[in-house]
Amino acid sequence: MSSLSRELVFLILQFLDEEKFKETVHKLEQESGFYFNMKHFEDLVQGGEWDEVERYLSGFTKVEDNRYSMKIFFEIRKQKYLEALDRHDRAKAVEILVKDLKVFASFNEELFKEITQLLTLDNFRQNEQLSKYGDTKSARNIMLMELKKLIEANPLFRDKLNFPPFKASRLRTLINQSLNWQHQLCKNPRPNPDIKTLFTDHSCAAPTNGARAPPPANGPLVGPIPKTAGFPPMGAHAPFQPVVSPSPNAIAGWMTNPNPSLPHPAIAQGPPGLVQPPNTGIIKLQFSKMVSVTVSMLFHFLFGYHKTAIQQNGVCHCFNVVSFFVWMLYLFAAAFLKHPRTPTSAPGIDYQSADSEHLMKRMRVGQPDEVSFSGASHPPNVYSQEDLPKQVVRTLNQGSNVMSLDFHPVQQTILLVGTNVGDIGIWEVGSRERIAHKTFKVWDIGSCTLPLQAALMKDAAICVNRCLWSPDGNILGVAFSKHIVQTYTFVPNGELRQQAEIDAHIGGVNDIAFSHPNKSLSIITCGDDKLIKVWDAQSGQKQYTFEGHEASVYSVCPHYKENIQFIFSTAIDGKIKAWLYDCLGSRVDYDAPGHWCTTMSYSADGTRLFSCGTSKDGDSHLVEWNETEGAIKRTYNGFRKRSLGVVQFDTTRNHFLAAGDEFVVKFWDMDNTNILTTTDCEGGLPASPRLRFNREGSLLAVTANDNGIKILANTDGQRLLRMLESRAFEGSRGPPQQINTK
């Protein structure tokens, strides 16, 4: 499905939510697979509607898709089974065991046998692992927390958990704009057009007996300017709403230039649609009621005629009707998304709606037009400076100079660090405990290439250039300053298990990143040999090699859009290139500001691309890119002095940027080029500190002098750390309670 078609589905979801068609909203979410409504999912789980839970999930994943999906379905079916046993409904429990749980027997036969043996117990709590099982409500809540973690870590749900931000009633606004253009294209436009249907294009009837359309009134405005009202409520079988003509007072409010003595305003030069002439506007009229009639007809059919069919045959018929509704609105939207011709002469309709005032204000002052969805299911994201982590709450000491940091993507207080002597460490920030530590060691020197063996014999010193977690947090990768990349599997208790050792590049490995080009996890590397390579993260088998840079490759940034996977890369000569996974060469060739060391990163929602770099002369540049045109969209201010090192940056919450420069951390709002605020982290920072946000943006790790790491927190981060401290204190007083089964 094209991008516009996908966005149209979101517009329809917003419309249905605003009109309280809750059941149909969730059916469209499931059928389209574009947006996973976590709130709706929580309600279903807490209500024990297990069939509907699995039906909703089926729009996004299946049991066999990956291990996260398998775990999700297993936890749901296990809970359903335990609740049947708790009700002493043995027949239902046996049915669940045979129909739902048996599919997992091929993956873990011992576990299936153990679950089966629960049937022989009078109370399954006699099983030691289930002895702490409480009542149904608490058990569902505990399971729900586990499910949410699995869903957030599941790559199939990537970019489907957040509803895109746009203005309320956006679909209605677009149709209003379409009606406005249709009226401007009328051969005989009337100042009081009579629009009675949305099923056909609007056209003013020709004046009878050769009479001309009446001119605008010469008197002053005699009525208030009408505002677009909300849609009237519609029930499943509500009668069609009558079409009511606007009052004369309201019509007077739309007339153009009511005082003919005033000169006509100048029309701004530019493409049609970019800047509307001041004397034109959106025809409000009876639009709300006409859309209500249209939607009422469709939903009268949906909830009336198909009600019995839905109850008897499941949801397939309802899905067909929802698809029909989507298709009808798609055709309607396509009609007014076409580029219209500029009208030569038509009496405009003067409107001063809140939308027009906001647009004109935005044109004057450059204010971004980003308004989050206002429906109950998709709350807006509003942030302030108070959401930035600026309070120092922890100070850690790694023992050697920290070169790279990365927070765990799931466990928000687990921090991975790499040092200038090749060490890596994993810290539990909440308890200030270093739960894992590995010094550099070549695992199999015999399998290394001769250049690597020679480099190690000449100089054994080695540095970590980059370390980071895989998207699910189960694997971590480490890039070293000589040839090698190592990957480990991470066990939550802090154990690191060797996984793959890759002799990746001749010279240093400057950056690594994880991606899923073939639905399996891969690791991307770049190095001093001017190459970019892609490897299987599990086996270390090479998959792709990309050649084309004329200097050492400094960083890589993988991404995907519309199911197209690609990689941005930057080299130390300032060249930015983009690659598809086809070995056919670079697709683009941009120049980075500063023409030296530059890193690139997308916002968390994947919609905005940023880069930060420093020139050889120490001039730093933080910019936002228009990635489709290869042009800089926005340059951020705040780098006043020449930097003493390469400036590092990070993004958080799709709203803030942060960079380490001039012995402080600087923050920007993504939509404002001026610096927002700074913090010196209570002193002790290097000239260009490295930094990293955790996933929620509640914690910020910053490198400090004397091998230190400072942890900054906002209110949420401080609350999280206090909660972990209290848990640690309670754990020290007694053994932890085990709740979950195997």
Automatic annotation (TrEMBL):
Residue stretches of each WD repeat: 502-545
Biological process according to GO: regulation of DNA-templated transcription
Keyword Repeat: yes
Start and end residues of each CTLH domain: 34-92
Domain of life, per lineage: Eukaryota
InterPro entries: CTLH_C, LisH, Topless_fam, Topless_Znf, TPL_SMU1_LisH-like, TPR1-like_2nd, WD40/YVTN_repeat-like_dom_sf, WD40_repeat_CS
UniProt keyword list: Repeat, WD repeat
One Pfam family it belongs to: WD40
SUPFAM superfamilies linked to this entry: WD40 repeat-like
Gene3D superfamilies: YVTN repeat-like/Quinoprotein amine dehydrogenase
Name of this chain's protein: CTLH domain-containing protein
